[in-house]
Design a protein that fits this description.
A: 115 residues, mainly beta, seven-stranded mixed β-sheet, four-stranded antiparallel β-sheet, 11 strands, 0% helix, B: 108 residues, six-stranded mixed β-sheet, 45% strand
């Protein structure tokens, strides 16, 4: 049981290049999330997917697109990378049920640098 | 507005000293709060949730609705507690709002 996995671990892009960050979970969770982590800003939600087939914008969606490929996989795409998108990106998943079990499980992160 | 405030960017203490990491929230409904921890070069993991009122690794956190606070406390800090700590608030059914985090540094 690997939990939440992300690829790649590190990536350097030039301004204007595109790339897709991959995320997969093997916990049969319904909900998946993409965050970015910046110094002094904490974690900010980019996009989320409450269930397979649905996606919604979070706090900072501009410059990103997502695809919920199936229940396991949720990808984040940067169409034209900008230096402001230099960050550490975390994927997370959650079972999706109400009540006390709201824990989100996080992946190891992708460190992206845009030059 | 739904917001989580962690006023301290860095908290530096000596081993064996008490620790209190502050978290204040702004939320109109009944809040559900968590503390997450991120050790060096590791992924975020859940430390505490207010609903379960548990003690994990010696840490406790009590929800104070009057002061809109959920401070994290430990009576005797250990070097292995050094990490980044994030307070998080459930907003709606699906989302968490995180504070900006507090780096705890425990020196020997």
């Amino acid at each position: 049981n690997a939990g939440v996995t992300q690829t790649p671990k590190f990536q350097v892009l030039k301004t204007g290049q595109s790339m897709t960050l991959q995320c997969a979970q093997d916990m049969n969770h319904n909900s998946m999330y993409w965050y970015r982590q910046d110094p002094g800003m904490g974690l900010r939600l980019i996009y989320y997917s409450a269930s397979e087939g649905t996606t919604d914008k979070g706090e900072v969606p501009n410059g990103y697109n997502v695809s919920r490929l199936n229940k396991r996989e949720f990808s984040l795409r940067l169409e034209s990378a900008a230096p402001s998108q230099t960050s550490v990106y975390f994927c997370a998943s959650r079972e999706g049920e109400r009540g006390g079990g709201y824990e989100q499980y996080f992946g190891p992160g992708t460190r992206l640098t845009v030059t | 507005a739904q917001r989580v405030t962690q006023p301290e960017k860095l908290l530096s203490v000596f081993k064996g000293a008490p620790v209190e990491l502050k978290c204040n929230y702004s939320y109109s409904g009944s809040p559900e709060l968590f503390w997450y921890v991120q050790y060096s070069r590791q992924r975020l993991q859940l430390l505490l949730r207010h609903i379960s009122r548990e003690s994990i690794k010696g840490f406790t956190a009590d929800l104070n609705k009057g002061e809109t606070s959920f401070h994290l406390k430990k009576p005797f800090a250990q070097e292995e507690d050094s990490a980044m700590y994030y307070c998080a608030l459930v907003t709606g059914f699906q989302k968490l709002v995180f504070g900006t985090g507090t780096r705890l540094l425990v020196s020997p």
